[in-house]
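Q: What does the predicted 3D structure of non-specific serine/threonine protein kinase look like?
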Amino acid sequence: MTSDTLIPVRLDGQFRIKELLGTGSFANVYQTINIITNQSYAIKLELAMEGGSSVEREYYALKELVDIAGLPRLRWFGRESNFDALVINLLGPSLYQLLQQHQKFCVSTVAYLANQLVSHIEQIHSHGYVHGDIKPQNILMGLGDQCRTIFIVDFGLAQKYRHPTTRNHIPFRQVQCIRGTPAFSLIHSHLGSELGWRDDL
């Protein structure tokens, strides 16, 4: 989404857009405030498109993964002024930002974060989903009493890798483009292979 795209000032009559938090290939993330409760959240905006936007896909994925710890909580989803909008709880800095600030993590910190991350990914996989874009920018720390908890965000590329009834892995097939961020994609994605649970690890 380009920076000069005119975004709505208020959504659903209750969420007022504040400052830009981050940009992605498809959507931008802003801080928003609920003018009724005065609570701050994050809102993801993407121009709506035929066939569904990544924000819409993320909404449906998070609905099915709602009981998993370490994922953002859904607050609202809807369409306003040609935008698909997803409101989730506001989180803290990403691992990428923390690495930029501290340059490196000590071994105990790496082990602490890795233990949580693997646990979250395992739960996502147990629900039949593959995230498809695990990278430091998509791993955020919580705020307040959750400041030592990591959260996996950005499920716009998430997809089911198991048949919902048989629970069998989806069949192998070639795809036309790389899924996820090329710098962090595994060799299977670069070779044009369908992603499975292995590609989140």
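A (community wiki): The structure tokens above were generated from the sequence. The first strand starts at residue 10 and ends at 11. The mean pLDDT is 87.
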